[in-house]
Amino acid sequence: MKTTFSSLYRIKSLHAPATAIGGARRLAPRRPPPFSPLRGLLPARQLSIETTKSIPSETYHGSARIKYPLLLTTAATLGGGFLYSRRQGAIQLDNGERSPTVAHSSALQERAHDALYDTSTSLDAVDFPTEKAILTSAPNVPPPITRDYPVILDVDLTTTAKLEQLTNQYKYEKWTFNNTVPGPFIRARVGDVLNLRITNHDESGMAHNIDCHAFMGPGGGSALTTVNEGETKTARFKMSQPGLFVYHCAVGPVGVHIANGMYGLMYVQPEQDLPPVDREYYVMQSEFYHEPPEEEDDGRLSSTVEFSWPHALREAADVVVFNGSEASLTEKPLKATLDDTVRIFFGNGGPNLTSSFHVIGTCFQKAYRDADVLSPPAQSVQTVTVPPGGSTIVDMKMTVPGTYTLVDHAIFRLEKGAKGFLNVSGEPRPQLYYSNQPPQPCEGCKLHP
Ligand SMILES: [Cu+2]
């Protein structure tokens, strides 16, 4: 009996057992690269980058000072970033021996603003202190940067390929930055000079690079960072625009490198960062395109699937997920405590689909639309639109305990894996949410565990 792929996928999905993801990472078995339009020796493409129209920083800073004086003062006094990082169990800032003294800090601070717009000094001659960037894998976010002066921020990225679980059924060879999909979250501050070192450890012989939407210049850094297997390159970029930016590989065919997992987020804090919150998380949506599983010698279908060029061209995604796999945020839900404000740095790697990001059971008290951190945020927003190569920042106040579900409200994508959970612990709050009957989720419900 001939079974079409779509029905096969559906049937297997319904009966597939949950498969634990994690444990040892392993490189995919590599075959010699055949000639292929996907692996051809095409030069890195130059992508045009439009500079975001600058909004005078005073506009929002003034508003922030009026709106959040208590929060900001408290955060500054108590060293909010330190307390925050302890609560998150995150890593301490690595200031190293080059941490400036208070007097030095003051001097740096004085020239920090000028340095932001300085065009007289080449980046190789900048004499800022050097700091090693804290890089975190999703859903973790590095602690807020509390310094008020620019640094040379060292960022190390390594490109790899590895076979790992994609859906509860199938494994897939993902192409990565630092062995994770999405790539690491990078946190910088406007005015910093990013000292990017990229190394290619992909054993297939494919070149990779980085096009970061925070890098203002032709190609977003791609032509300066293209590395062949075994190669390392270093380039410097001024962080002149604040915001939450997508970075991705841009080696051609760029769509294939993105479709296989080569993207991540970089947050460039404005001079005055957003108001502090209780928890920050990193969530990135993307979709995968794969062929049906091949039949193996014993007649069984392979548990590994491969990239599908025709599906990608048709933009007919087989899999849509948060944080690189179907199980990322269902087997390890995000966590919060009652009355926490939770911030999600949300990006969309695409490569094709626009996300209608929504969290079932709550709304975004603040939504920094398109991750614009200079304008006041939108308020009380239910769903945000995030295009491929775009991002948003949303804050949610969790006033009722229970499980909340992250979805793309283009809701059939739920059947393709786009689902995550946020568990909020705490005592019931009948003042806001009440029934005299126990909860009774519908049969087969995928949304409300
Ligand atoms: Cu690449």
From TrEMBL:
Q: Where are the transmembrane segments?
A: none
Cross-referenced SUPFAM superfamilies: Cupredoxins
Q: What class of enzyme is it?
A: oxidoreductase
Pfam (any one): Cu-oxidase_2
Q: Which keywords annotate this record? A: Copper, Metal-binding, Oxidoreductase, Repeat
The UniProt catalytic activity note for this protein reads: nitric oxide + Fe(III)-[cytochrome c] + H2O = Fe(II)-[cytochrome c] + nitrite + 2 H(+)
Q: What's the name of the protein? A: Copper-containing nitrite reductase
Q: Indicate the segments forming the Plastocyanin-like domain, all copies.
A: 169-272, 318-406
Q: Does the keyword Membrane apply?
A: no
- Keyword check for Plastid, yes or no: no
Tree of life domain:
Eukaryota
Where along this sequence does the record place binding of Cu cation? Answer: 208, 213, 248-249, 257, 262, 409
Write the Enzyme Commission number(s) for this entry: 1.7.2.1
Q: How does it assemble?
A: Homotrimer.
The record ties this protein, via InterPro entries, to: Cu-oxidase-like_N (IPR011707), Cu-oxidase_C (IPR011706), Cu-oxidase_fam (IPR045087), Cupredoxin (IPR008972), NO2-reductase_Cu (IPR001287)
Give the family this protein belongs to, as stated in its UniProt record: Belongs to the multicopper oxidase family.
According to its UniProt record, which cofactors does this protein need?
Cu(+); Cu(2+)
Query: GO MF annotations for this entry?
Result: copper ion binding; nitrite reductase (NO-forming) activity
